[in-house]
């Protein structure tokens, strides 16, 4: 959300209100956003139409971020060339969903966030936060209740 600070390895940052421009310029659109009111239905018919016909949509965020029926229409019509989907509006993905058999779709079993060292990382953060709490220092990874994450 904050594009005032430069980010290493990133040529250009776009604020949320410039999503239309970003979609038009992108070969791959990777969704990695939280599920908050502003992101529900973030990608629908209009946003898909803005994307390049050769573009691929990758959703590793939440199923609610993409209007699934509109994505299916766009994939069938060739509005975009493909999708890689790790999350769905309804999970597990129903057996009768056309996404299972579409040649331009890769379906993964909601594993994009899986890390082999997850338990160790959680314990490291917990132990660090416990020490910070006991020493009355600011905690790491505090949820911003106004943002919703």
Write the layout of secondary structure elements.
Layout: H1 19-25, E1 28-31, H2 45-50, E2 56-59, H3 68-77, E3 82-85, E4 105-107, H4 118-134
Parallel strand pairs: 1-2, 2-3, 3-4
Salient structural properties:
Rossmann fold, about 150 residues, alpha/beta, 4 helices, four-stranded parallel sheet
List the domain count as a whole number: 2
CATH superfamily of the largest domain: NAD(P)-binding Rossmann-like Domain
Number of helices: 4
Oligomer: single chain
Into which percentage range does the β-strand content fall? 5-15%
List low-confidence stretches: none
In order across it, which strands form the biggest sheet? Answer: 1-2-3-4
Rg calc: 18 Å
Rough outline? globular
Strand tally: 4
Mean pLDDT: 96
For the record, the CATH class of the largest domain is: Alpha Beta
Short synopsis of the structure:
The chain is α/β, with parallel strands linked by helices and 149 residues long. It has helices spanning 19-25, 45-50, 68-77, 118-134; strands at 28-31, 56-59, 82-85, 105-107.
Q: What can you see in these coordinates?
A:
The protein is of the alpha/beta class and 149 residues long. The protein folds into two domains: 16-114, Rossmann fold (3-Layer(aba) Sandwich), CATH 3.40.50; 115-149, no CATH class. It has four helices and four strands, in the order H-E-H-E-H-E-E-H. It has helices spanning 19-25, 45-50, 68-77, 118-134, and strands spanning 28-31, 56-59, 82-85, 105-107. It has a four-stranded parallel beta sheet, with no helix packed on it. The model has no long low-confidence stretch (mean pLDDT 96).
